[in-house]
Design goal:
Order of helices and strands: EEEEEHEEHEHEEEEEEEEEEEEEEE
Largest sheet: 5 strands, antiparallel
Radius of gyration: 21 Å
Oligomer: single chain
CATH superfamily of the largest domain: Oxidoreductase, molybdopterin-binding domain
Shape: globular
CATH architecture of the largest domain: Alpha-Beta Complex
Distance between the termini: 25 Å
Helix content: under 10%
Strand content: 25-35%
CATH topology of the largest domain: Sulfite Oxidase, Chain A, domain 2
Number of helices: 3
Structural class: mainly beta
């Protein structure tokens, strides 16, 4: 479970089992990867993304559909640049529309009046709002589970924090008029299923009406002040902050209001669900024992220095910084350790710009000598939940893994 950084530094394995997957390398270095058994071939080098407008430091986790994560050291900006933002798709990428303002969005189902509105009309009828909010893949942290869970092996790179401009979904739901029977949303989009079947959604998730009516749940058309890129769901998508990113439907075409929990692709059995009663890791799972993952767990990352960084002999004070977030909650405390968790010191924690913004943090740690050190980061949310040493509460598809992030550095 060690991690190879530049072929030299490997974060150690400890009794707590902190996953090496939580210690990504700097983009220019070979990737962090689980140490292979002595008789096995060395781990494969990462496949770096080659995509127009994207930073080549992003690491490809899957090519059909295209999925790529952002190494922690590339998440060092207060607002994540578009070129550094992770990519998660479920189906085929649609062709970019030539007339974004003509794009149609429909609100139907358990409403008093079916509503169909173009993007151009949406922009002109409702005042736009801009909020900086975290978008995070539901499987972020999956690579830390043991035994391995199914799905893309995200470390911490399935998250970013952008400035989103649009209107609250609640505005359209109020205009359509929710019936008393309205309980849940169902989201639909223009991306074709990987099979090519026209009537088969690639994914169709939804949320409780209470979350849909949250003013921070938005239909957006702009990212960091620019038209929403096609790869990120342009011309228009949902942003459902604090919950699994799959609920933030890209290429949004329709929101259907249902009188019961939605059962579309990505909503049933083990998809985006966690165990109610903890199960034996790797054991047989019972769908009746699972509930939908809603608010994402507390998480923090170290964004500088990068994993594997080296410093001049005699360096004793080391400046460290990073980001933290906690789903629907906020982060109330950040701590760092340089002695494998034996002792901790508080980090300086910034306030969020608005609800669902991430909270940046800084610390200066003292190193007693030259040599090899690990820096661990641990966030605590506003309800007192703290990041664990290892990904716990195993589930077949690896949701909720939020083990502490750690990096290795060398002095001298």
């Amino acid at each position: 479970m060690g991690a190879i950084i530049g072929g030299a530094l490997s974060p150690s394995v400890n009794g707590g089992g902190v996953s090496s997957a939580q210690a990504q390398p700097a983009p220019a270095s070979p990737p962090a990867a689980p140490a292979a058994p002595a008789a096995s071939a060395p781990p494969k080098a990462p496949q770096h993304l080659k995509f127009p407008g994207k930073d080549e430091g992003l690491v490809v986790l899957g090519d059909r559909p295209l999925v790529a994560e952002t190494p922690e050291s590339l998440l060092d900006d207060d607002t994540t640049p578009i070129e550094k933002f992770y990519i998660r798709n479920n189906g085929q990428i649609p062709e970019e529309t030539k007339n974004p303002d003509a794009w149609k969005i429909t609100i139907d189902g358990e409403v008093n009046k079916k509503l169909e509105i173009s993007l151009g009309e949406l922009k002109s009828k409702y005042p736009a709002v801009t909020r900086r909010m975290v978008l995070e893949c539901g499987g972020n942290g999956r690579a830390a589970f043991s035994p391995p869970a199914r799905g893309n092996q995200w470390t911490n790179g399935g998250a970013g924090c952008a400035e989103w401009t649009g209107v609250p979904l609640a505005n359209l739901l109020k205009a359509a008029g929710l019936k008393p029977s309205a309980k849940y949303t169902a989201h639909y989009s223009a991306d074709l299923h990987l099979s090519g079947e026209a009537n088969k959604p690639s994914i169709s998730r939804g949320v409780r009406i209470e979350k849909a009516m949250d003013p921070n749940t938005m239909i957006v058309w702009s990212m960091n002040g620019k038209p929403l890129p096609n790869i990120h769901g342009g011309p228009v998508r949902l942003i459902v902050p604090g919950w699994a990113g799959s609920a933030s439907q890209k290429w949004l075409t329709r929101v259907t209001i249902r009188d019961k929990e939605h059962d579309g692709p990505g909503m049933t059995e083990f998809s985006y669900r966690v165990a109610i009663k903890p199960m034996v890791p790797g054991g047989k799972a019972d769908p009746a024992n699972f509930r939908i993952l809603e608010s994402m767990p507390v998480r923090s990352i170290i964004t500088n220095p990068a994993n594997g960084a080296t410093f001049a002999a005699g360096t004793r004070d080391l400046k460290v910084r990073g980001a933290s977030w906690a789903g629907d909650l906020t982060v109330k405390q950040m701590d760092v350790s340089t002695d494998f968790g034996a002792t901790w010191q508080h980090a300086n924690l910034e306030k969020p710009k608005n609800k669902y913004d991430w909270q940046r943090w800084t610390a200066t740690v003292k190193l007693p000598t030259d040599g090899y050190f690990e820096i661990w980061a641990r966030a605590t949310d506003s309800k007192g939940a703290m990041q664990p040493h290892q990904a716990g509460f195993w589930n077949p598809q690896g949701y909720g893994g939020n083990a502490m992030h750690r990096i290795a550095v060398m002095v001298g």
